[in-house]
């Protein structure tokens, strides 16, 4: 396969930071930049120096680090209509940022030139030419983002082409066609990009947004049509519905289209980790459904037999999950067999034959509970506890003798527990919080390792047919000790009781792993 | 524009239910089916009758309802290799389900025939032919899902074509090409679908999965290449990374590709509501970044001037948000909203001008609460109560002075309330049930009409990004008096307090309507 290359411009720190509820500290930005450099992107768009002081700080600070491959790019607009380039604040801020690469956006949709910018079409061409020329004359490499290009081309193709030809003649090194409002369907992106490819000689790029759910596909279609530069963000963060997700685009370019991207195939193995670190920095839970890297991306549920997948994986999986740093996962549920349990147990270092009678007993218990409202694919650690008991590998670390919660109409709750003969009381912002705190206070005295355990997800579902205040409630809790995550569940007509069950299972499971099995394996079970 | 049509098969209830953490009750399934019928889909794939009893129940139960347009389809596989069609359990379960339409999947990738099914390529053709023919002979319309078609076509195009030609000759009414493992890039979907279009005469369909983030685009590309039948799920729920999201596909087909879909353009306005209700049924928070319908989909950040957007909206928005039932949102100023309230108030017989200052005040209060975790589109009756207060149309019927709940570790709870000077105590199966009972006992003495009110839905959502036992909880409750339904909500860090708030609002709202407004209008607000 001929190794054509596609270069990557990451704009997580610039366009990504425009997303709702997205905010980076200077430290966050440095951390992400180093991560992107390690991953092997060509350009890191660090910010818009003319627009805010934090971005200017970033350009200063990042200079203290030696990057292996990535070049830092500063973003800005073409010059304002009523000043000369030398007096333009935006262009001069880019120069002052003292970077190698400038990314500037300009109008390519005639409607925007005449109705928004309020200049003639010729004036806009001059603005584009002068701005690029000025930055080039200061020794900068220039990437020109043709704003609203696809919309512009649709309405006034001649003018849109004239704009990018002007950018080329002014010396732009890359011309990125932007689908700024994200509304162009993939076939149109392909046709338009192809036409531009026919008339320009410079390297073409694509900058896609996800407003019709096609940002990833549009990026691929543009490359198919000849673009060799892709702009996007980690996890697709960005304004409105987000930017194109590089985490999803890159593996397809490499594994399905034969392009050389980043530092080669090995870089793909880092994608899951990079994706997770960015979620963590943002305080967002990872998206389990994210293509390639999500926890469910290679999960097999009912209907498909584990044996069949193991035997002919390519019959069921579009790529080998390990290529993108992910794992195959078998989900435990009422429809699954002992093979699923076996693969879970392997994850915590227990090897059992799948025909073992004790496993069948455990599975029967699990099925009985599922008929009552449990769903062990959402809280598998609780299923493992049942299995450990059947296997005689369970130690009774947590013996909850009594509990009680009193909720007052100021929203506060008092939780009382008696666990392992220790009586404890705690106040909380709700009944579950109160019991959670009382439980930990009592247990931590005997098991200091409990101090490592944090609760990171708490969900309440009413799985019954009719839902009212007498219905069965299923509580699912996810725990972490920052090395591994695990999920448990509890079912009861009382939301408090169901929560207590899931809480106790979570701490119990951790103690089984740490004290009896002495495992620290990453058995993340979503 | 010539009105070519694309028909929609919704498989939320079948393929969607294979998703991790997805589980529907029979009631949920009926509710969703009715919603889909109202939306205007052609086919509702209700389940796999051979695989589990719950699906069989659904086919029985849905017969009790008169659907306006949608036809219920039962799913299954082609016959097993070692039995005749007459003895095949799967095919006969479909017939027994007594529906008009069968959807059956069969192998079209030769690897699957020989390595998974372990039959000759000819045997597989016979299986496909016989299965379709058998169902047709029982008067069923047959949709044939060609499993792994795109993979199969890539490796063994002749055979893949032979399979679908066989299906056509057996009388299949629709042949849906399935990208079962979701790994085919959009340009390949286009090319392959086009080739199939050239050799078949029957209606072609597309069934896409999102494993490389292209399910929406692949569905559009297949239609571009000649498919006129699209399969997908609401919100893209489904196994692994999910199915193609109909909520995203349909507006592009209508607004950008000129197709006639559902019941015409007006159906698009219901998309946001349908999306939200399905999230709510699943106990999942809506995705704010979802194309077209998400809260952020038409959000304009501070940098864009409100006036500019208002003046030339098409310069900034790829479609008018109201076309898909969504709103433009300005981060800096509140503009829209009062119109929504006005239309709700009309539903209960109150006519107010949308420029009324009191409405703006109410809206500000609502927005403050939404910032704290409320979401009034899921519990609008609580928003109406706030508005009635601002309009001076509120009477204080329910004055809750004090409440307390004690939960014991036998699962039972004691609820104590003092409401309208009446002290009452009740026992319940959980804290919410106990308070619910105590409240009604106290109120019913003064307001016997409360006796008509039943609770028919109760849901708990943690709307914050980080979820733990200290998180804010949103409780939504649906009430009915068998003539009208209404939904309220409560938000607190305590699930008990949030429930009490929603309970009180529900009874309060009913009394406002019955005693003050004397309305019996059917203001069902889902």
Protein model, in words:
The structure is a homodimer of 526-residue chains. By secondary structure, the first copy, chain A, is of the alpha/beta class. Chain A has a domain at 7-282: Aldolase class I (TIM Barrel). Helix content of chain A is 40%, strand content 18%. Chain A is built from 18 helices and 16 strands. Chain A has helices at residues 26-39, 53-62, 89-96, 110-117, 121-137, 149-155, 157-169, 186-199, 215-224, 246-255, 265-268, 271-282, 306-311, 338-347, 357-371, 380-390, 431-446, 495-517, and strands at 7-10, 43-47, 71-77, 101-107, 141-147, 174-179, 203-208, 229-232, 299-300, 329-330, 400-408, 413-419, 422-428, 454-461, 473-480, 485-492. In chain A, the strands form four sheets. An eight-stranded parallel β-barrel of chain A has the order 1-2-3-4-5-6-7-8, surrounded by eight helices. In chain A, strands 11-12-13 form a three-stranded antiparallel β-sheet, covered by helices on one side. Mean pLDDT of chain A is 90; it is low at 521-526. At the A-B interface, α4, α8, α9, α10 and β11 of A face α4, α8, α9, α10 and β11 of B.
């Amino acid at each position: 396969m001929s190794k054509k290359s596609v270069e990557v411009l990451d704009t997580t720190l610039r366009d990504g930071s425009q997303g709702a509820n997205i905010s980076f500290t200077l430290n966050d930005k440095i951390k992400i930049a180093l991560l992107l450099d390690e991953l092997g992107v060509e350009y890191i768009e660090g910010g818009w120096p003319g627009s805010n002081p934090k971005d200017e700080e970033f350009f200063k600070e990042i200079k203290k680090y030696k990057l292996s491959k990535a070049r830092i790019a500063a973003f800005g607009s073409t010059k304002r209509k009523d000043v000369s380039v030398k007096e333009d604040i935006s262009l001069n801020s880019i120069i002052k940022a003292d970077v190698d690469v400038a990314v500037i956006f300009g109008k390519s949709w005639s409607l925007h030139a005449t109705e928004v910018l309020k200049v003639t079409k010729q004036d806009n061409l001059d603005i584009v030419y002068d701005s690029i020329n000025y930055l080039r004359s200061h020794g900068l490499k220039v990437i020109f983002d043709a704003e609203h290009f696809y919309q512009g081309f649709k309405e006034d193709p001649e003018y849109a082409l004239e704009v990018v030809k002007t950018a080329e003649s002014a010396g732009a090194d890359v011309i990125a066609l932007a689908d700024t409002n994200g509304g162009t369907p993939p076939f149109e992106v392909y046709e338009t990009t192809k036409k531009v490819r026919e008339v320009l000689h410079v390297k073409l790029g694509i900058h896609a947004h996800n407003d019709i759910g096609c940002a990833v596909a549009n990026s691929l279609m543009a490359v198919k049509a000849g673009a060799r530069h892709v702009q996007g963000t980690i996890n697709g963060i960005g304004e409105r519905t987000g930017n194109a997700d590089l985490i999803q685009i890159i593996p397809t370019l490499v594994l399905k289209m034969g392009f050389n991207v980043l530092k080669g195939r090995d870089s793909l193995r880092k994608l899951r980790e990079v994706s997770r670190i960015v979620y963590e920095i943002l305080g967002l839970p990872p998206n389990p459904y994210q293509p390639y890297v999500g926890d469910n991306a290679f999960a097999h549920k009912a209907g498909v037999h584990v044996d069949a997948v193991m035997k002919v994986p390519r019959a069921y999986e579009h790529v080998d999950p390990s290529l993108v740093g992910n794992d195959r996962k078998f989900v435990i549920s009422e429809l699954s067999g002992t093979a699923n349990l076996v693969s879970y147990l392997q994850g915590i270092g227990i090897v059992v034959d799948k025909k073992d009678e004790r496993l069948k007993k455990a599975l029967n218990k699990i099925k009985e509970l599922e008929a009552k409202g449990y769903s062990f694919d959402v809280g598998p650690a609780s299923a493992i506890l049942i299995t450990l008991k059947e296997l005689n590998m369970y130690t009774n670390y947590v013996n909850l003798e009594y509990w009680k919660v009193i909720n007052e109409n100021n929203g506060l709750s008092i939780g009382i527990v008696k666990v392992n003969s220790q009586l404890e009381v705690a106040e909380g912002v709700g009944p579950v919080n109160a019991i959670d705190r009382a439980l930990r206070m009592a247990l931590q005295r005997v098991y200091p390792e409990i101090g490592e355990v944090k609760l990171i997800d708490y969900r309440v579902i009413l799985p019954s047919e009719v839902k009212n205040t007498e219905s069965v409630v299923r509580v699912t809790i996810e725990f972490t000790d920052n090395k591994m995550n695990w999920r448990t569940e509890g079912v009861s007509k009382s939301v408090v009781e169901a929560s207590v069950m899931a809480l106790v299972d979570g701490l119990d499971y951790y103690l089984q792993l740490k004290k009896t099995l002495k495992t620290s394996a990453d058995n993340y079970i979503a």
